[in-house]
From TrEMBL:
EC number in record: 2.7.4.3
Every Adenylate kinase active site lid domain range: 160-195
Protein name: adenylate kinase
Gene Ontology MF term list: AMP kinase activity; ATP binding
Keyword Nucleotide-binding among UniProt keywords: yes
Similarity comment text for this entry: Belongs to the adenylate kinase family.
Catalytic activity: AMP + ATP = 2 ADP
Broad enzyme group: transferase
InterPro entries per UniProt: Adenyl_kin_sub (IPR006259), Adenylat/UMP-CMP_kin (IPR000850), Adenylat_kinase_CS (IPR033690), Adenylate_kinase_lid-dom (IPR007862), P-loop_NTPase (IPR027417)
Function: Catalyzes the reversible transfer of the terminal phosphate group between ATP and AMP. Plays an important role in cellular energy homeostasis and in adenine nucleotide metabolism.
Quaternary context: Monomer.
Domain of life: Eukaryota
C-alpha cells in the first residue's frame, strides 16, 4: 500500500471481508473486460439486470446521477463546478459529466470495465465518451438496448403500488396485494408514486425516444447494439444478456 492511512484502514477490515475480496478479485481476473452501456425506458428492467451483470463480470456500475451527487458531496474540483451549474439552475455540461466518468474509470473497482446507466443520452455525449475512452486505449464493447413496447411499459408501471414505510411493492396484475389497495403485512394503505401515472409516463417515454433514438443509431452504425426482448420475464432477459455478452 503506497499510503499508510490506506494500509491502516485495511487493518480494521475483518479478515473474512479481506479474504472474500481477494477471492472475488482472483475470480474476476479470469473474466474478460467489458465496457457496457445500458439503454432503456423507465420500467424496462435495467435496474433488475445491471446488478446481475455487474457481479457476473466484475464491473463497476456508473449511474451518472449518483456520481454527480457524490462528486458534489465530496467537493472534488469537478463536483464544485457541477454544484455551481446546479445552483444557477443550469444543466451540468457534457464535458463535466464525461470528466466525472473519466475519473471513475481509473478506480480499481472499474479495472475490468463498467456498466454505464443513464448516459450517454445524446449523440454528442456518445462522441465525447468515445473520445475519452480512446485516451485510455479502450472503447465501448456493447450497448444493451432494453427494447420494449410502450403499451407493455404502461401496464407494468401504472400497475405499481408501494407501501411507503417498508418499501414493499405490489402490482395490480403481476403481484397484487391480498386486499386491493392495502399492504399485506400492516393493512396500511398503498400509494402510487407520482412518476408511475400514465400521464407522467407518456411524457417520459416521449422524451426518452426523442433523445435516445439517435444514440442507438450512433452505436448501431458501429455494430455494437444488442436488442433485448425486455418484455420477457427477468430470468429470460438475463439469459439473453448472458448470450450476448459471451459471444
Amino acid at each position: 500500500m503506497a499510503n499508510s492511512s490506506a494500509a491502516a484502514n485495511l487493518e480494521d477490515v475483518p479478515s473474512v471481508d479481506l479474504m472474500n475480496e481477494l477471492l472475488r478479485r482472483m475470480k474476476c481476473s479470469t473474466k474478460p473486460d467489458k465496457r457496457l452501456i445500458l439503454i432503456g425506458p423507465p420500467g424496462s428492467g435495467k435496474g433488475t439486470q445491471s446488478p446481475i451483470i455487474k457481479d457476473e463480470y466484475c464491473l463497476c456500475h456508473l449511474a451518472t446521477g449518483d456520481m454527480l451527487r457524490a462528486a458534489v458531496a465530496a467537493k472534488t474540483p469537478l463536483g464544485l463546478k457541477a454544484k455551481e451549474a446546479m445552483d444557477k439552475g443550469e444543466l451540468v455540461s457534457d464535458d463535466l459529466v464525461v470528466g466525472i466518468i473519466d475519473e471513475a474509470i481509473k478506480k480499481p473497482s472499474c479495472q475490468k470495465g463498467f456498466i454505464l446507466d443513464g448516459f450517454p443520452r445524446t449523440e454528442v455525449q456518445a462522441q465525447k465518451l468515445d473520445e475519452t475512452l480512446a485516451k485510455h486505449g479502450v472503447k465501448v464493447d456493447k450497448v444493451l438496448n432494453f427494447a420494449i413496447d410502450d403499451a407493455i411499459l404502461e401496464e407494468r408501471i401504472t400497475g405499481r403500488w408501494i407501501h411507503p414505510s417498508s418499501g414493499r411493492t405490489y402490482h395490480t396484475k403481476f403481484a397484487p396485494p391480498k386486499t386491493p389497495g392495502v399492504d399485506d403485512v400492516t393493512g396500511e394503505p398503498l400509494i402510487q408514486r407520482k412518476d408511475d401515472t400514465a400521464g407522467v409516463l407518456k411524457s417520459r417515454l416521449e422524451a426518452f425516444h426523442k433523445q435516445t433514438e439517435p444514440v442507438i443509431r450512433y452505436y448501431s452504425q458501429k455494430g455494437l447494439v444488442a436488442d433485448l426482448h425486455a418484455e420477457k420475464p427477468p430470468k429470460e432477459v438475463s439469459a439473453e444478456v448472458q448470450k450476448v455478452l459471451s459471444s
